[in-house]
């Protein structure tokens, strides 16, 4: 079974400051990793994914994440946040098997960007 | 840009009643999913559906739940006899194929069971 831990339930940050949202995972099998964002009253939108290759992946809206296998982490970063980045961010994993891709989510981190 | 749509946006029902939540996935997608999020909790997988059959389901997805793709465009989740603990936001998602690893989510249906 897989599990995802997002230790920070809320992260307040000032506009134009850098931010890091932490994600750690646990799995007995190889997994793929994802970050999703949820704006108020909307569905989840894929920010970025790590499947293989370079451990630094770039996503939409200037976000990037680094896969660290030894630390089983996939932290999300942005060098300079904007007010519009205020949203809930979910880290998720799926195992490498055939068939459908069941996503296992963390509890989410609410990013609040302040002026 | 194509998107996944869900209706209704909010459904209120009484305990013991049947509800059907509807989703229209993106038209060329082949894999379909339902997830739910109880208020304040994490998003949980319920079921995946491919080629007109369930490919995987979670422990939550018991005999009270069923899914169907009745007409090639809609994808429905039925709860036969709702319980208070079924109150949650239900998200539908669709995916082009299993190798894309890009699920597109709908805006959700908030189900309130009273």
SSE map:
The complex is a heterodimer of chains A (115) and B (114).
Chain A: E1 3-5, E2 10-14, E3 19-21, E4 24-26, E5 31-38, E6 44-50, E7 56-58, E8 64-68, E9 73-78, E10 87-95, E11 104-105, E12 109-114
Chain B: E1 5-7, E2 10-13, E3 19-24, E4 31-37, E5 43-50, E6 53-57, E7 65-68, E8 75-79, E9 88-95, E10 104-105, E11 109-113
Parallel strand pairs in B: 2-11
Antiparallel strand pairs in B: 1-3, 3-8, 4-5, 4-9, 5-6, 7-8, 9-10, 9-11
Structural features, described:
With 115 residues, chain A is mostly beta strands. Chain A starts with a strand and ends with a strand. Chain A has no helices and 12 strands. In chain A, a hairpin with an 8-residue loop joins β10 and β11. Chain A is globular and about 45 Å long. In chain A, strands 2, 5, 6, 10, 11 and 12 form a 6-stranded mixed β-sheet that branches. In chain A, strands 3-9-8-7 form a 4-stranded antiparallel β-sheet, with no helix packed on it. Chain B has 114 residues and is an all-beta fold. Chain B has strands at residues 5-7, 10-13, 19-24, 31-37, 43-50, 53-57, 65-68, 75-79, 88-95, 104-105, 109-113. The A-B interface holds A 32, 34, 36, 41-46, 49, 51, 90, 92, 94, 98-108 and B 4, 31, 33, 35, 41-45, 48-50, 55-56, 58, 91, 93, 95, 98, 101-108.
What proportion strand of chain B? over 45%
Secondary structure: helix percent of chain A: under 10%
Main sheet record of chain A: 6 strands, mixed
Biggest chain contact: A-B, 25 and 27 residues
Total of helices of chain A: 0
Order of helices and strands of chain B: EEEEEEEEEEE
The largest sheet of chain B, given as strand count, sense and whether it forms a barrel, is: 7 strands, mixed
Oligomer: heterodimer
Q: Structural class, judged by helices and strands of chain A?
A: mainly beta
Share of helix of chain B, binned = under 10%
Question: How far from one another are the termini of chain A?
Answer: 41 Å
Q: N- to C-terminal separation of chain B?
A: 37 Å
Low-pLDDT windows of residues of chain B:
none
Unreliable residue runs of chain A: none
């Amino acid at each position: 079974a897989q599990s995802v831990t997002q230790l920070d339930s809320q992260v307040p940050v000032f506009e134009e400051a850098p931010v890091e949202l932490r994600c750690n995972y646990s799995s007995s099998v190889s997994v793929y990793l994802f970050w999703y964002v949820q704006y108020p009253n909307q569905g989840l939108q894929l920010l970025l994914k790590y499947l293989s290759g370079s451990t630094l992946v770039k996503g939409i809206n200037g976000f990037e994440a680094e896969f660290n296998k030894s630390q089983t982490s996939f932290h999300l970063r942005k060098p300079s946040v904007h007010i519009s980045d205020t949203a809930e961010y979910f880290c998720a994993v799926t195992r490498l098997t055939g068939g459908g891709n069941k996503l296992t989510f963390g509890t989410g981190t609410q990013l609040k960007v302040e002026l | 840009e194509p998107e996944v749509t869900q209706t209704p946006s909010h459904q209120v029902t009484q305990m013991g009643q049947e509800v059907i939540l509807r989703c229209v996935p993106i038209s060329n997608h082949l894999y379909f999913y339902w997830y739910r999020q109880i208020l304040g909790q994490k998003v949980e997988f319920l079921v995946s559906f491919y080629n007109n059959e369930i490919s995987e389901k979670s422990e939550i997805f018991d005999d009270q739940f069923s899914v169907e793709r009745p007409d090639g465009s809609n994808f429905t989740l039925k709860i036969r006899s709702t319980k208070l603990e079924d109150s949650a936001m239900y998200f539908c998602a669709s995916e082009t194929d299993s190798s894309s690893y890009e699920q597109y989510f709908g805006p959700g249906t908030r189900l309130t069971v009273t």
